[in-house]
Amino acid sequence: MDERIRNDFPILGRTVHGKPLVYLDSAATSMKPIPVIEAEARFYRESYANVRRGVYALAAEANERYEEARGKVAALIGAGPGEVVFTHGTTEALNLAAWGLGETRVEPGDEILVTEMEHHANLLPWQEIARRRGARLAAAAVAPSGELDLDDLRAKLSPRTKVVALVHVSNVLGTVNPVAEVAAEAHRVGAIVVVDAAQSVPHLPVDVGDLGADLVAFSGHKMLGPTGIGVLWGRNDLLAELPPLLTGGEMVREVWLNWATWDDPPARFEGGTPPIAQAVGLGAAVDYLRAIGMEAVRRHGEELTALALDGLLARPHVTVYGPSDPAAQGALVAFNLAGIHPHDVATLLDQEGIAIRGGHHCAQPLHRRFGIPASCRASFHVYTTPEEVNQFLSALDRVWEDLR
């Protein structure tokens, strides 16, 4: 990736424990380039006001910036602006989807199908809906290779299946799931398909039309944008059916003491003051990624993943989890060192300025599936360099020598 891109991320110039920072935790959150930081700051300096309320010039300008950001996000994923709901993150977006579908599509005795590789944000909301509605929650298995067991998924689909919820790219294994194939199977039994795209939209070209899903959720902070902003994309006709999760100001048409009528989507789902400045920052992040090109972003991530996989798989004391083909993965690798807890690995790497994640990554059922309490994860983005991956591999050898 171009050195100019690297220079756009000022935080990467700092040191940690006296060592240059090597940030390899982009799956948790990505760093922010100067254009994103400046876009949000400029909005506060020059154009800030609340949206959908005032009729004065500054409010109109703020509203224009907010809706402009919505249009940019829509264009990135091949959608219409009216299908893009701003939330406060992927978690809220998935809870909104679960709540709405629970109220409109799930009855006692129905089934909700997830997978064993779900992040807790795409598992716990469905647990709650199943409990509240008297439905059954089932999970499609993950094969030892880290790939979704499609035969098991098909076997668990039935006419009682009302919702299929799955991750596009696993935040632990990096597995890229065949969402379009799953969606086609699910639609044959009349199920709605909800996709957690938090790890795919920041790294892959994603077109919601090609994906075939009905609802898709992702976050701004993982795609070079600010925290506090997320997206739920949905088909227009489906969004029109769903009730809001949050009720309050500016999401209604009329309010009486005893009843109210909801506004059309997306306003229906954006009650209260939305994350306005964060949306502007997300729009700048979309501009930044599109200027690079999502195909180029994908190639860069694949090259770094291939380099990391080659190095890890060559070390007999390392166990790698997930597909061994970088073309079948997102921009991350999960691994463990024999007999060493991931927290110890992450702590010693931190002493060398290298930031990785050690833990269960909000995916405890998946770790139980592989018989481990936790794993190490190194994850990349556009600012990560091959030299940093090699630094990480060399430092991992020193950790092994110190702790084995």
Please explain how this structure is put together.
It is a single chain. The longest helix is centred in the N-terminal third of the chain and has 20 residues, at 57-76. The strands form 5 sheets. Strands 4-10-9-8-7-5-6 form a 7-stranded mixed β-sheet, sandwiched between helices. Helix 4 packs parallel to helix 5 (124-133). By secondary structure, it is α/β, with parallel strands linked by helices. The model has no long low-confidence stretch (mean pLDDT 97). The protein has helices spanning 3-7, 34-47, 57-76, 90-104, 124-133, 150-156, 179-188, 208-211, 236-241, 276-292, 294-313, 342-351, 364-369, 386-403; strands spanning 15-16, 19-20, 22-23, 84-87, 111-115, 136-140, 161-167, 192-196, 215-219, 230-234, 252-255, 260-262, 318-321, 332-337, 354-355, 357-359, 375-379.
